[in-house]
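Researcher: Sequence recovery benchmark, item below. Answer with residues only.
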């Protein structure tokens, strides 16, 4: 697990940035699964998974959602014949090229099996 934390003493010293901690479980591996995203207020978008782990993923997409926003991902896999899989997540961080998300429930098996990718990718070759 990797934890990134800004110390409380920095905040007390006059820095107005809030304390931030990000949790990651599992090794991040490259992925190319295509996704559709659904968020509150009827927001929909498409994207591609850049990397994935057992605790979340980074989704390359044009939409910009606030931290803690809930999203429903429809993962289409990296092959047009893949089965669609729904996974609930929340936004952990947002950047210019996409957003980092955390799964609402930690998968109990390989993330590749969860997203049902048919074509072997870098992620499945690293197992």
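Model:
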């Amino acid at each position: 697990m990797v934890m990134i934390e800004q110390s409380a003493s920095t905040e007390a010293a006059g820095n107005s940035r809030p304390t931030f901690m990000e949790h990651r479980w599992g090794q991040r591996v490259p992925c190319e699964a295509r996704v559709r995203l659904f968020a509150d207020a009827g927001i929909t978008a498409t994207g591609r998974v850049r990397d994935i782990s057992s605790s979340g993923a980074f989704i390359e997409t044009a939409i910009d959602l606030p931290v803690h926003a809930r999203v429903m991902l429809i993962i289409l896999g990296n092959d047009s014949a893949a089965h669609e899989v729904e996974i609930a997540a929340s936004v952990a961080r947002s950047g210019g090229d996409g957003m980092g998300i955390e799964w609402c429930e930690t998968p109990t098996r390989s993330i590749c099996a969860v997203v049902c990718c048919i074509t072997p990718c870098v992620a499945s070759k690293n197992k």
